[in-house]
């Protein structure tokens, strides 16, 4: 009987160990071998094992990060987290397009966007008119996420998991005082809580009435900014008179590692035509953007546009003097 009791205890312990192994693997995403070692080193204590894994990953991540400093990171994702009056648009870079499609990397970008949004709200609880703040990667890394870990710690932990150099590149924090409202969009959308894509924009607008119709048009205007890449909203007095509306030209942009799965970005007929109100509307080339917004009684007040990797190349990581393109 004593032998049977001991055997039953062993079976119960093995069952508990397997259960904790599955839980730890699901929660952390680390390989089974690492999770098993963590439980063995911590007497099958799930909480202690998780902390042990995090400490190991952080140490390994910092070590790998130092060894990878010379590697270029031309790929990555743009992420946006936003509501009616606040938005955070971020860019996080990696080495290959393969990793940009990795669920762990996408979760990292989601965390970065949400953390930057939280920081924007805490730092500017009562926005006055329109505020735009650009953060560099070093500043972003110091921000504390919801789990009380810095974004730098999140990055190095993910370096240990994906095996590539990862870089926090930039963030644009936009806020607008009521009645102004924000809209945002990325392309292509992945379906995450924070939108992710290769392109992104945040748009500030005012309207005679704020309803589903104006919100839908604001989203279409975001789509226009992504596709047509305007550099300012209105023409200055010195600008030449507008040329006749030109047909919209589609350009296929294929990222490294893809055969023909790139995003489609629309371009205007003339390279010099970068004034948003003068451009042919992306979704109705027979009308200008000015015609569309006038008919809907809506006004574009400002915008910021990101394109992942703009100013970067596989050979060089020299960034352009103005990485964030802003209207106005």
UniProtKB/TrEMBL annotation:
One GO location term (cellular component): mitochondrion
Domain of life (superkingdom): Eukaryota
Keyword check for Protein biosynthesis: yes
UniProt GO MF annotations: translation elongation factor activity
BP-aspect Gene Ontology terms: mitochondrial translational elongation
Family: Belongs to the EF-Ts family.
PANTHER family the record matches: ELONGATION FACTOR TS (PTHR11741), ELONGATION FACTOR TS, MITOCHONDRIAL (PTHR11741:SF0)
Annotated function: Associates with the EF-Tu.GDP complex and induces the exchange of GDP to GTP. It remains bound to the aminoacyl-tRNA.EF-Tu.GTP complex up to the GTP hydrolysis stage on the ribosome.
Protein name, as recorded: Elongation factor Ts
């Amino acid at each position: 009987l004593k032998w049977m009791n001991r055997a039953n205890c062993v079976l119960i312990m093995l069952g508990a160990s397997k259960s904790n192994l599955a839980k730890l693997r699901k929660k952390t995403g680390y390989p089974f071998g690492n999770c098993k070692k963590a439980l063995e080193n911590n007497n099958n204590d799930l909480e202690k094992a998780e902390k042990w894994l995090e400490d190991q990953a952080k140490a390994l991540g910092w070590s790998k990060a130092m060894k990878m400093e010379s590697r270029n990171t031309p790929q990555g994702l743009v992420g946006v987290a936003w509501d009616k009056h606040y938005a955070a648009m971020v860019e996080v870079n990696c080495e290959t397009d393969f990793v940009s499609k990795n669920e762990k990397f996408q979760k990292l970008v989601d965390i970065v966007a949400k953390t930057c949004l939280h920081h924007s709200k805490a730092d500017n609880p009562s926005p006055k008119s329109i505020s735009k703040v650009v953060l560099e990667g070093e500043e972003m890394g110091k921000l504390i996420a919801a789990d009380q870990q810095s974004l730098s710690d999140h990055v190095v932990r993910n370096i240990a998991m994906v095996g590539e150099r990862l870089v926090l590149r930039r963030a644009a924090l936009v806020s607008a005082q009521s009645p102004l409202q924000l809209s945002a969009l990325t392309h292509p959308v992945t379906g995450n809580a924070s939108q992710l894509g290769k392109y992104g924009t945040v748009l500030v607008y005012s309207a005679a009435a704020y309803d589903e119709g104006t919100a839908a048009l604001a989203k279409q205007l975001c789509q226009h900014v992504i596709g047509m890449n305007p550099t300012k909203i209105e023409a200055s007095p010195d600008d030449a008179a507008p040329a006749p509306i030109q047909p919209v030209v589609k350009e296929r942009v294929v990222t490294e590692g893809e055969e023909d799965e790139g995003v489609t970005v629309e371009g205007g007929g003339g390279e010099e035509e970068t004034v948003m109100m003068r451009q042919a509307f992306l979704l109705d080339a027979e009308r200008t953007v000015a015609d569309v917004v006038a008919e809907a009684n809506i006004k574009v007040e400002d915008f910021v546009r990101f394109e992942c990797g703009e100013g970067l190349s596989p050979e060089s990581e020299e960034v352009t003097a103005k990485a964030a393109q802003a209207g106005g």
